[in-house]
Every structure is written in structure tokens, then in C-alpha cells.
Amino acid sequence: MMLGSVVESAISGIFQTKTSFRRLMGISVVLFLSGMFLLSTLSIDTARWMLTVFMMVAGLGVGFSFSLLPTSSNHGLEPQYRGTANATNSFFRSLGMTLGITIFGTIQSNMFTDKLATAFKGMENQGNMGSPQTIFQSTERAKIPAAILDKIVEAFVSSITHIYTLAIIPIGIAVIFVILMGDTRIQLKKETVVVDK
């Protein structure tokens, strides 16, 4: 995902002077929406290379915003206001990430817990299954019987894919804001040459 972000960040920097902010952000949200949709189709049988491709597509969508949003928020502002625009942009980016991780992380954790409770309903020692993090530790994972491990992994994957599906909602809202951006683009200033007569 980070590889895709870095590549698209560089590409968007190149094309900022050639086309409008809205057109570039349009490409960004389409790629990001596509990446989230692909990630929402994950299953236990998804190959690692497919997961890598899905993450790269999502990363390509995110990458545009790294250089494009700060530039577009500064564009057309007087120099004395650019610091405020950069600070506001950074603040809302950090706030969005913090709230997003908190909200979606809480939803995913609760869904995972609920799916585990459903999967192991009626089993003995249901409340003493240990920490779900054991499925990420190879030594502990090897101790879990295959039938139980499959149920844990299935519950985990299902909770993750639901979160990717829910992530499509804020991306849809972003599409509306991109449409409202207007057709502004960076204008390169040409040097004026004074000719003596």
C-alpha cells in the first residue's frame, strides 16, 4: 500500500501543472474506491499476491492526496495565510486518521468478538478461548486445533472485510467534495522580459 502511495504521490506532483485538482482527485477517489471494494472481497482463500495487488490499488488512490491536497489548499492564498492553511490541512488529516482508526477499529473488534461468540456458541470453555492475538503468533497458532483455528480465522477475515465495506461510505462522501472542487489548477508564472527601446 505504501509503495502505491509513494508512486502516485510523485505522479500527482508531476501532473498538478497539467490538469485540474478536481480531475486528479477524481482519479484518486476512483482508485481508492476500487481498492476498498477489492479489499472488501477478501476471503480465507485469497492469495497473498492478490492481497498485495488490492493494497497497491488502494495505495495508488491515497497517494494522490499526499501532495495534491496541501497544494490545492494553498493555491491562490496570500503568502501570510499559507502557514495557517498547511496547519489546518495537517490537523484535519491527523484528526481524520485518529477518528477513523478509533471508530473502525472499535467496530471491527466488536464484530470479531460477536462472530467468535456465534462460531463457538454452545461449546465448553467458550469464554476461555484465550487471546485472539494468538492466531498471529506461529508458535501459539500451531497449538490450536485446525477446526477451531479455521473458525477464528474466518471470524477475523469476515470482520475485516466488513470494515473495508464500511470504508466505502466515507469515500463516497469524498466523491461529493471532489466534484465541488472546481477546475482550478496550478498556474506557472512566466518571467516577464523587459526590452529596452
Helix content: over 70%
Continuous helix count: 6
Mean pLDDT score, rounded?
82
Overall body shape: elongated
Alpha-carbon Rg, integer = 23 Å
The strand count comes to 0
CA distance, first residue to last residue: 59 Å
Give the biggest sheet: none
Number of domains: 1
What is the helix/strand order? Answer: HHHHHH
Proportion of residues in β-strands: under 5%
Low-confidence stretches: 191-195
Structural class by SSE content: mainly alpha
Task: Write a structural description.
It is a single chain. The protein is an all-alpha fold and 197 residues long. The chain has one domain. Helices cover 71% and strands 0% of the residues. The chain is built from six helices and no strands. Helix 2 runs antiparallel to helix 3, helix 3 runs antiparallel to helix 4 and helix 4 runs antiparallel to helix 6. The longest helix is centred in the middle third of the chain and has 41 residues. It is elongated, with a radius of gyration of 23 Å.
Properties at a glance:
mainly alpha; elongated; disordered C terminus
Entry summary:
The protein has helices spanning 2-15, 21-39, 48-74, 79-119, 138-141, 146-179. The protein is mostly helical and 197 residues long. The longest helix is centred in the middle third of the chain and has 41 residues, at 79-119.
Write the layout of secondary structure elements.
Elements: H1 2-15, H2 21-39, H3 48-74, H4 79-119, H5 138-141, H6 146-179
